[in-house]
Amino acid sequence: MFSVYLQDFQQCKPLERRVLHVLERLPKEVQQDFLDDARFTVSLDNYVPGEGSTVFMAAPGGTGVSSRSVVLKPRLSECDEAFSHYVIAHEFAHAYLRNGPWGDISNTEDAANALAASWGFPLPGKLPGISA
Question: Is 131 a residue whose pLDDT tops 50?
Fold first, then answer.
């Protein structure tokens, strides 16, 4: 069902598994929203120092119709698994909310954090090198 979102991660299997783990645990209505929208994409960041990166995403459409592209860094396959799941869910929350508010939470970062937590992916407590 989610294979279209995992294509970029063939060479990064640990991250592929982490992305799939989060996708499979999202509420059904969120999964369906993503599946029904061709503008929703998930890509692996291919940044090369000194060269840059290439990420293809849908161009913005009319009012309120924006690209819903999530670009994840390969290092998410190497960091703490709970933190990686949180970051992935947080980015999916931005896409679901179309970078907007959630309920009474108007700050988009706080909204994405709260929504990710409601999906079961809260920001983990103190992790080495991570300040909460």
Answer: no
What pLDDT shows up at residue 31? 98
Containing 93, the helix (H) or strand (E) segment is helix 81-97
> Is 51 part of a structural domain of the chain?
no
Residue 1 is predicted with a pLDDT of: 86
From residue 33, how far is each of 4, 16, 39, 41, 95 by CA, in Å? 14, 21, 11, 12, 10
Specify if 37 maps to a domain. yes
Domain that holds residue 103: 3-44+69-118
Length of the chain: 132
What is the tally of structural domains in the chain? Answer: 1
Tell me the pLDDT tens digit for each residue of 64-119. Answer: 555 688 999 999 999 999 999 999 999 999 999 999 999 999 999 999 999 999 99
CA quadruple 81, 87, 89, 92: dihedral sign: negative
Q: Is residue 1 helix, strand or coil? A: coil
Cβ neighbours, 10 Å, residue 31:
16
Bridge partners for 72 per DSSP? 44
